[in-house]
C-alpha cells in the first residue's frame, strides 16, 4: 500500500465526524417515533449533551472506512456507526459515575452527572444504549434482514457481558473493588473493555459488505490489533499527556491504582508493543491492497494520537 497522506486522512476523519454529528442530531431530536409515547426533554437534553459536540468519532469512522472497502453505501455505514457511537457514549456516561471512575471532566466539559445528577446520567446512558439497537435494526441499514440480524448480534456481544461490560467489571476488580487478589490480565481487560467496540467498527464493515470469510477474518485481526494499540496509546497518554490536550484529568489510572500496559511493560516496552501491533494491523489488511489505505492510516493515527 502506498498509504494515505496525513492531510487527506484528517479530512476524511473530520468529514465522518461531521456526518455522524448531523445524523446523531436527527436521531436524538425531540421528534416522537411510532410506538414511542413521549421523549422527555430532560432525558433528551442529557443524551444530546453527552453525544453531540465532541470526540473524534473514531468508531463510526472505522465502520465507514471498513464498509468502503466493499463499496457499501456511505449512508448505511453511517447509521451503523451512529448506533456504535451511541453505545460508546453511553459507556462513557456510566464510566464517569461516582460508583465507577468518579470523573469530573470529559471532553473538556463537566461530565454528565456533574452537569445534571446521577439519576439523569444513568437514564441518559440507558437511553443511548437502547436507541442504538433501534438504529441498527432499521431497514435503511441493509435490505437483507439477515445482515441486520448479524450486525445486531455482533454489537450486543461486543458491547455486553463478553465484551465491554464484562471488561468494565474486570477492570474494577483489578482495582480491588470487590476484595480478593484475583490475577489481573491487562490484555484480556483491554480486549473487552476498550477493544471490543473498536473491533466491532471493523467487522461491521465486513458484515455490511457480506465479505468472504477470509476478508472478515482480515478485518477482525486488524480490529484486534488496532484496539490493543489504542489502549496502550491511551495508557501512555495517561502518563505522558496533559489534561488540556486530553480533555480529562491526566494520571487518573495511577490515582485509581489501575494496572495498565505501562505499569506492566514500562514506557519503552509499551511503545515497542505498539510498533509490533501496527505491523500486525498492516499485515492483516494487506489482502485488500489500496482499498485499505485509509484503514492503514487509521491504525497509525490511533497509535500516534495526542488526545
Automatic annotation (TrEMBL):
Domain of life: Bacteria
Keywords recorded for this protein, A-Z: Isoprene biosynthesis, Magnesium, Metal-binding, Transferase
Known cofactor(s): Mg(2+)
GO molecular function: metal ion binding; prenyltransferase activity
UniProt keyword annotation of Metal-binding present: yes
A single GO cellular-component term on record: cytoplasm
A biological-process GO annotation: terpenoid biosynthetic process
Similarity-based family: Belongs to the FPP/GGPP synthase family.
Listed name of the protein: Probable farnesyl diphosphate synthase
Source taxonomy: Bacteria, Pseudomonadati, Pseudomonadota, Alphaproteobacteria, Hyphomicrobiales
Amino acid at each position: 500500500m502506498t498509504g494515505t497522506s496525513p492531510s487527506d486522512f484528517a479530512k476524511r476523519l473530520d468529514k465522518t465526524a461531521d456526518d455522524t454529528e448531523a445524523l446523531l442530531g436527527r436521531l436524538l431530536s425531540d421528534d416522537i417515533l411510532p410506538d414511542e409515547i413521549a421523549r422527555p426533554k430532560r432525558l433528551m437534553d442529557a443524551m444530546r449533551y453527552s453525544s453531540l459536540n465532541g470526540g473524534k468519532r473514531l468508531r463510526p469512522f472505522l465502520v465507514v472506512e471498513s464498509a468502503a472497502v466493499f463499496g457499501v453505501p456511505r449512508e448505511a455505514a453511517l447509521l451503523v456507526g451512529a448506533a456504535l457511537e451511541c453505545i460508546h457514549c453511553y459507556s462513557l456516561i456510566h464510566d464517569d459515575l461516582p460508583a465507577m471512575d468518579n470523573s469530573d471532566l470529559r471532553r473538556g466539559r463537566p461530565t454528565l452527572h456533574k452537569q445534571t445528577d446521577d439519576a439523569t446520567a444513568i437514564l441518559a446512558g440507558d437511553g443511548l444504549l437502547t436507541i442504538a439497537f433501534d438504529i441498527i435494526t432499521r431497514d435503511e441499514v441493509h435490505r437483507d434482514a439477515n445482515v441486520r440480524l448479524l450486525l445486531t448480534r455482533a454489537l450486543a456481544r461486543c458491547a455486553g457481558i463478553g465484551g465491554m461490560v464484562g471488561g468494565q467489571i474486570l477492570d474494577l476488580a483489578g482495582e480491588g473493588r470487590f476484595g480478593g487478589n484475583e490475577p489481573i490480565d491487562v490484555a484480556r481487560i483491554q480486549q473487552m473493555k476498550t477493544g471490543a467496540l473498536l473491533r466491532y467498527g471493523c467487522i461491521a464493515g465486513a458484515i455490511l459488505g457480506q465479505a468472504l470469510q477470509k476478508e472478515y477474518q482480515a478485518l477482525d485481526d486488524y480490529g484486534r490489533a488496532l484496539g490493543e494499540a489504542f489502549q496502550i496509546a491511551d495508557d501512555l497518554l495517561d502518563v505522558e499527556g496533559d489534561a488540556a490536550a486530553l480533555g480529562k484529568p491526566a494520571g487518573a489510572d495511577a490515582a485509581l491504582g489501575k494496572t495498565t500496559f505501562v505499569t506492566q511493560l514500562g514506557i519503552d516496552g509499551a511503545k515497542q508493543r505498539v510498533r509490533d501491533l501496527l505491523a500486525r494491523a498492516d499485515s492483516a489488511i494487506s489482502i485488500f491492497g489500496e482499498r485499505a489505505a485509509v484503514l492503514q492510516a487509521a491504525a497509525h493515527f490511533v497509535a500516534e494520537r495526542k488526545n
